[in-house]
Every structure is written in structure tokens, then in C-alpha cells.
Amino acid sequence: MDGWESIAASAVPMTGGYGGETYTVSAAGEDAVLRLYLRDPNRVSVDVALMRLVRGILPVPRVLDAKLVGSVEDPPYVLCERLPGVNLETYLPTAAEDQRRRIGEQLGELLARLSGMPFLRGGMFEGDDLIPREFDLGEGGLVDWYRKHAAAIALDPVRGAKLTVVLAEVDDQVVLDEVDDQVELPPERFCLVHSDFNPKNLLVDPETAIITGLVDWEFAHSGSPYTDLGNLLRFCDDPVLAGAVLDVVRRRAPALAEPLQRRAREADLWALIELAGRAAQNPVAAAARDLLAQMAESGELAAGRPDLDPA
Predict the structure, then answer these.
(1) Looking at the structure, do residues 11 and 101 belong to the same domain, yes or no?
(2) Are residues 209 and 137 in the same domain?
(3) Is 72 in the same domain as 113?
(4) Same domain assignment for residues 118 and 57
(5) 299: which DSSP letter?
(6) CA-CA distances (angstroms) from residue 271 to 10, 49, 206, 264, 291?
(7) Are 114 and 263 in a shared domain?
(8) Which band of pLDDT confidence, cut at 50, 70 and 90, is reported for residue 309?
């Protein structure tokens, strides 16, 4: 590349995200995407390593250039090819039933591939060797995790107390699942988790309904194989798409234990609670807080969400 100035000259902020660090640019004779690393400059080497690791297995862009060390004035960055397609979030509302089913089948395949990329322990990746640093989640399970974020989530005391009852029941169920002889997936099994696996971060060819990209890997880590499924189903109310996802995951990732929908929603609670603490920052975080409030009111993990599982 000709340097930071030549890349930044044509930068146009991308819509759809909330970080304000991603831009479309023209570079090396082609359209590209420029991602700056202002909030977490050490993450750049992890993202480059991840995209190179999974390319050919998952639809991620080629890395065209990267600056792994920088400053506020000259920040680290990754320059990637711009993948074809449109954002899946904008595509789905007008997609026909057969198109949504086709999308769901492909999403299930991507989830199965992610679940098949194992690690020896869970945690956030620290560098380009992709060795996870174990999470500090405390010893009190989801109840303790919620209490750490309760002030930021700001539910009223009555709802907060009701929510801890729901979370305690989930904690108890997880313990029962771990000692159940029928569970095929031991708790020490970890895999690659995208951690933001939802339509906002997926691209699709609108003519063929073929998934063309899975982007934004900034939260990827080693974790539960149910986490990405839970993220995808968090706000989903489409039984056609979700049913296709779950059907393919069952066939292509048979090591995952039933019931898939419940386990996915349980695994998603860790991220949901953390996200709800940022409700003032963006609409997705506000929706996460609303979902926790609905769990408190209903006394159920489903929180009024439809049963999307055809099994």
C-alpha cells in the first residue's frame, strides 16, 4: 500500500454497525473495507489470524493489508476485500418463504462448521497464535453475572428479583445437564464462536439467496457451541428460517445435545446480560434489556418468544 493517507483519502463510513470504525474505500484498484482499531488496538492481530484461519471454510474476506501496530493518530487497521451481496438484515423482510428456508439451511451449515473447530479451553484470544485467555465469569453462574451488570441494566428492584429467579433456574438446569449421562457434549468441549452471529453481520446475494459473507469478528472467541445459535435465535420470530437452521445443525453437528433451542437460549444469556448493560448506546442493546425485562415478567427463559423448533 502507499501508506495510511492514500487509504484514508477515499474512506466512507459504513452504515449498519455501531462502532464507527468501519469504512468503504477504494484501494489497489478494487473496493475494500477498512476497519480501524481505536478502542482495542491489540485485537487487530487476532482478527487477521482468524480470517486467515477460517478462509475457505467460512465466507470471510481476503485480507489485503494490515497495520498491526499504531497510535491514535495512525491507528492499526485491517484492509479487506469488499464481499458481494447485501446485508441479510435488510434482505429478510421481503424474502419469500423458499428463500428464507434456503438462507436458514446455509446458516445451519455455517454454525455446524464453527462448532467443529475445537479449542482446549474457552476464553478470548490474546494474539495471532489464537490461544484463549480464560474468562473471568465469577463463581456464581448467571445470577452472579447479572448482579455484576445489574446497575447498568437498571431494572426496577421487583423485576430484578424476578429475573434472578429465572437465571437461578437456568443455572440449576445447566448443572443437571452436565451430570446427565445422555449428554453427548462434555462441558470441557469448546469451539470457535463468532459471538455476533446474526443477520446484521451476514451478507447474501439477493438474486440467488446464497450467503456471501460472515463479517465483523471483533468478539470472536473460544466458547460454547450453542452460543452462536443462541445469538441467531435471540430475536428471531421466523419459524421457516429457524426451523431450517435447527434441522441442519442437528444433521451436521450431531454432537450437540437436545433440546437445542433451550440450550442455545441458555448459552446466549451471558452475552445478552452484558449487552443489556449498554441499553443507552444502541437499539440492539435496548432490545436486549427489554428481553430481560420480559423474562422477569413472564418468569420464563422464552419470555414470550415463539417456539421455533420443529422437532
Answers:
(1) no
(2) yes
(3) no
(4) no
(5) T
(6) 35, 23, 30, 12, 12
(7) yes
(8) confident
Q: What is the 3-state secondary structure (H, E, C) of 80-103?
A: EECCCCEEHHHHHHHCCHHHHHHH
The beta strands (E) that lie in 50-179 are given as 63-67, 77-81, 86-87, 118-119, 123-125, 132-133
Residues 136 and 35 in one domain: no
Instruction: Tally the C-alpha atoms within 13 A of residue 168's C-alpha that lie toward its C-beta.
Output: 9
Question: Phi, psi (5° rounding) for residue 233?
Answer: -85, -5
Q: Which domain holds residue 44?
A: 4-81
* Per-residue model confidence (pLDDT) at position 2: 47
φ and ψ of 131, to 5 deg: -90, 120
Q: Are the C-beta atoms of 262 and 177 separated by less than 8 Å? A: no
- Answer yes or no: do 120 and 150 share one domain: yes
Question: Is residue 170 within 8 Å of residue 164, measured between CB atoms?
Answer: no
Element containing residue 223 per DSSP (H, E): strand 221-223
User: Over the stretch 67-114, which tens digit does the pLDDT of each residue have?
Assistant: 999 887 888 999 999 999 999 999 999 999 999 999 999 999 999 999
* pLDDT tens figures, 111-120: 999 999 999 9
pTM for the model: 0.91
Last residue of a domain, one of 81, 103, 120: 81
Number of domains the chain is built from = 2
Q: What span, in angstroms and rounded, lies between the C-alpha atoms of 58 and 79?
A: 18
**From CA 92, how far away is CA 94, in angstroms rounded?**
5
